[in-house]
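Quick one, T. Sequence first:
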Amino acid sequence: MRHLLSRVLALVVTLSISMGSHSANLSGSAFQTFCAVETDSIDYGICLGFVRGLHMTHEIYGAISKNYKVFCLPPNVSTTQLVKIISKYLENHPENLHLEAASTAFVALKKVFPCEDGQ
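Structure tokens:
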């Protein structure tokens, strides 16, 4: 049992390291692949997690620094809606598919949800 537990732990660490290095360089093209179909698949789960992580990171930085707000989401916007907005932006701007997905997502969300003065 102890041997099995150590093997499982080694697998989890290996997957974490490989997924971490992969997600750090997620391109717009890779984003489109992960987010292609709304299903209960692992790929779409990665897509949702990525977008939710971007959203939460933006909110945290926004709470720390009032000057950080890049975009201002309306109440009750869903992660799925954000995925659709980012995907549509990439479809309309294929010249950006090679760029990092996180920065491209911020540009897309800023265009759709700009902040008003004082937000």
